[in-house]
Amino acid sequence: MSCAWCHGPIPAGSRRDAKTCSKRCRQALSRFRRTVGTAERAASTLRLAYADPPYPGKSRRYYADHPDFAGEVDHRALIEQLQEFDAWALSTSAEALQDVLALCPPGSRVAAWTRGARHTVSAGPLNAWEPVIYFGGRQDVSLPAARDMSRGSSDDTSADPSHHAGVDVSRAAVVDTSRAPGDDASRAEVSRVATRDVSRRVDALVHGVTARATDPGHVTGAKPAAFAHWLFADLLGARAGDEFTDLFPGSGGIMRAWQLYTAG
């Protein structure tokens, strides 16, 4: 049996019900699952797609040695392929946004992922965000529950609903139950508020990127778990039972997130 996170072998002598090869992988899988969340089952099925290709002009620099991404991507052909689906999303760079958006059909919208600027010296403003062009999606407000902050570790910012831009108490309460006043009943109420249903969808995500050494098959530009949740729940309104295609799997993180998101 292989590890559910890194796909390496589970050491001999491990518990019979062990799903991961080490404590490090077990914790990484747990954080990833908690952040991605779970979806309700759809009454009707949508065919959804996501594309995260090498951004225009960047393939040779970042993916010259990658067997799938060695050449430049024909974005015109890619967007035509995406239009075969009921709803889709496409990541690109701020630099290429004008040209890529011009190829998209009317009704396409642009969402913003603010990931933070890279730590380097620059004569001009550093780019700190990436656009996500999206089209279609389920139009309702019955969304998965917000992530429970009472279970998040101090460095697990991916589980923090406040990292969605524009979040207020009508969307989800951000709490630390270890500091909640009062008795156990009061803390339980605070935790209940933190996990109540989300009733707002937003087109902006504020969430940084950190090195994820435990990710199996990690490639440059791999999206974090919080991005996957935002993509599924907010932009596409995805539900369990929908069909989802990742056109540029890369490390496989988005499909791994989708499997957890729709597992119930």
Summarize the structure.
The protein is of the alpha/beta class.
Mean pLDDT reading: 74
* Rg, nearest Å: 19 Å
Physical arrangement of strands within the biggest beta sheet: 5-3-4-2-1-6
H/E series: HEHHEHEEHEHEH
DSSP strand tally: 6
What's the shape? globular
Characterise the protein shown here.
This protein is an alpha/beta fold and 264 residues long. The protein has helices at residues 23-36, 59-63, 75-82, 97-101, 184-194, 225-235, 253-261, and strands at 47-51, 87-91, 109-114, 129-135, 204-206, 243-246. It has a six-stranded mixed beta sheet, sandwiched between helices. Helix 1 packs parallel to helix 6 and helix 6 (225-235) packs across helix 7 (253-261).
SSE blueprint and pairings:
Blueprint: H1 23-36, E1 47-51, H2 59-63, H3 75-82, E2 87-91, H4 97-101, E3 109-114, E4 129-135, H5 184-194, E5 204-206, H6 225-235, E6 243-246, H7 253-261
Parallel strand pairs: 1-2, 1-6, 3-5
Antiparallel strand pairs: 2-4, 3-4
Highlighted features:
single chain; 264 residues; alpha/beta; six-stranded mixed beta sheet; 6 strands
